[in-house]
């Protein structure tokens, strides 16, 4: 830490930050600093796929956030995991490779006034860093840093669920990432030969570690951004204050500061820096450096409703992992083959469908697992069972992230505000009915499925919505808290090129920039956004302003 002057300062070595560090430090003429509050990713459970069980809820790798009591969840609080290590959430997440639907990005184009965000314009940036197991084609990339593989296991009960879904009218698919993810099939995952493939492996090592113009600080938390006024009165972010655990250090950025601390961390840092809603800042005695009322608002997340079915005559992880012989078999298979339950993502089988026939697009996502438990981190049940978790892909409920105090060490107040709209409550009730319809198909009959949770006695919309509040939990996809938008949108924090409105030299590059949540898992869309941001940053540095300006939106379908 002897050097504190850089060209680019990247805050957060998570999904976006690792890619940005790779792309920007490729120019040997610039100096790049990557700052991470967590430690290096040298904890063995990060790399063994099933290790998410030991990373979530562990202060070694998780910020240990909790939500505020939520009325939509009948007053419950939820654990709200966020990665605190190199690779960020890509080191503790479900490893599922999912882009969402083409309509998501076309909607972003409309909301930002920039046709550059359409699906057709975004697709090349997914492909640029992709290394797909089938090789490259019109929709997938090969040779990139971000490895995508098939899962190295299968389960009879999941195969039967997939057949039942087809019988219920959901088509089979072998690729969820072609623009319309409707269908049922096994998820593809970010793994390499049975190991988790996080963004630190993909983008930092060995590439960045060998570059003399790249520096990385771990165990270092940014406490606030430095904002100054240029001679012409323009506000400019010139650097950040960093707590190293021993001292406060000020770092400066000659070109840009890139905030990639995630949909929870980035709005917290902005608010602590005096950038955000003026009433909130004044409440905590923080001088208003720049008023942006949208900072921390517009929080969106996927709420999964975890329905459980008891089964008979088939092996599930409940029975396999609840015996010493079963555990030994699982460990031996992974040691010898890098396959089996220790190689599995938290969810293996996926399905996308509609909550009702009048829905124009698939608006539900299923994460199906050959196991059951009361809550994440709790012991598996003693009886054989599977869980069909279903979430509303396009929730209309909106929450917030707000600082609790002016102290950087205090976790922010996270209020997702789940199921706060009539639309979301209706989709929740309808989604449980879709799950029941799938479970009633002939393909599952041989296993005698019995609904254990929420229970077949609950039938009305009111009953199912209340039960959804009792059993639902986050699927870890917070986005939208520093959304991009047009000049006419008073709640837009960023422009269409992820630049903070009213402050030069500062961008937010993470899932918080999404104006609306994608129709699927959010990790790989965040990587795509970082890929695009890197290109814009480099274009701006070259003075290629024409490339950095938004493309006007034409008539979009």
UniProtKB/TrEMBL annotation:
InterPro entries: FAD/NAD-bd_sf, GMC_OxRdtase, GMC_OxRdtase_N, GMC_OxRtase_C. It comes from the Bacteria. Gene3D superfamilies: FAD/NAD(P)-binding domain (3.50.50.60), Glucose Oxidase, domain 3 (3.30.560.10). Keywords: FAD, Flavoprotein. Coiled coil: none annotated. Its cofactor is FAD. Residues 262-276 form the Glucose-methanol-choline oxidoreductase N-terminal domain. Belongs to the GMC oxidoreductase family. This is GMC family oxidoreductase N-terminal domain-containing protein.
């Amino acid at each position: 830490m002897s050097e504190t002057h850089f060209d680019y300062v990247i805050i957060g070595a998570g999904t976006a930050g690792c890619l940005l560090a790779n792309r920007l430090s490729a120019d040997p003429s610039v100096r790049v600093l990557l700052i991470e509050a967590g430690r290096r990713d040298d904890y063995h459970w990060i790399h063994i796929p099933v290790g998410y069980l030991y990373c979530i809820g562990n202060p070694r790798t998780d910020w240990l956030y909790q939500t505020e009591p939520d009325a939509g969840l009948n007053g419950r609080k939820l654990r709200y995991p966020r990665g605190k290590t190199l690779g960020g959430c890509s080191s503790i997440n479900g490893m599922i490779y999912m882009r969402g639907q083409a309509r998501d990005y076309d909607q972003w184009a409309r909301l930002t006034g920039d046709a550059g965000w359409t699906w057709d314009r975004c697709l090349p940036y997914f492909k640029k860093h992709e290394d797909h197991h089938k090789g490259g084609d019109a929709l997938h990339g090969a040779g990139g840093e971000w490895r995508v593989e098939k899962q190295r296991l299968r389960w009879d009960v999941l195969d039967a669920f997939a057949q039942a879904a087809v019988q219920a009218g959901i088509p089979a698919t072998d690729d969820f990432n072609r623009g319309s993810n409707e269908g049922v099939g096994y998820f593809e995952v970010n793994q390499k030969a049975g190991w988790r493939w996080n963004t630190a492996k993909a983008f930092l090592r060995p590439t960045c570690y060998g570059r003399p113009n790249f520096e990385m600080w771990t165990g270092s938390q940014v406490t606030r951004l430095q904002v100054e006024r240029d001679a012409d009165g323009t506000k400019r972010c010139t650097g950040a204050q960093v707590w190293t655990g021993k001292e406060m250090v000020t770092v400066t950025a000659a070109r840009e500061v890139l905030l990639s601390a995630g949909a929870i961390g980035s709005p917290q840092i902005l608010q602590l820096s005096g950038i955000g809603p003026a009433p909130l800042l004044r409440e905590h005695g923080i001088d208003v450096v720049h008023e942006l009322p949208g900072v921390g608002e517009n929080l969106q997340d996927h709420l999964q409703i975890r329905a459980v079915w008891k089964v008979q005559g088939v092996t599930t992880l409940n029975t396999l992992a609840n015996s010493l012989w079963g555990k030994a078999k699982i460990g031996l298979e992974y040691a010898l083959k890098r396959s089996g339950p220790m190689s599995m993502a938290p969810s293996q089988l996926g399905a996308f469908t509609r909550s009702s026939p009048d829905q124009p697009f698939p608006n539900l996502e299923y994460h199906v697992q050959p196991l059951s438990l009361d809550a994440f981190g709790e012991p598996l049940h003693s009886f054989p069972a599977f869980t069909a978790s279903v979430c509303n892909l396009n929730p209309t409920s909106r929450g917030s992230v707000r600082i609790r105090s002016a102290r950087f060490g205090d976790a922010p107040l996270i209020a997702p505000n789940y199921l706060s709209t009539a639309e979301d409550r209706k989709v929740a009730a309808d989604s449980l009915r879709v799950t029941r319809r799938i479970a009633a198909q002939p393909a599952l009959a041989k296993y005698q499925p019995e609904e254990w949770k929420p229970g077949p006695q609950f039938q009305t919309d009111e009953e199912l919505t209340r039960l959804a509040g009792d059993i639902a939990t986050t699927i870890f996809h917070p986005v939208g808290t520093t959304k991009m938008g047009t000049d006419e949108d008073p709640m837009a924090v960023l422009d269409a090129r992820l630049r903070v409105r009213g402050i030069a030299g500062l961008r937010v590059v993470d899932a918080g920039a999404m104006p609306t949540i994608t129709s699927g898992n959010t990790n790989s869309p965040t990587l795509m956004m970082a890929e695009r941001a890197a290109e814009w940053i480099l274009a701006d540095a070259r003075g290629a302003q024409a490339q950095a300006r938004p493309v006007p939106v034409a008539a979009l379908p």
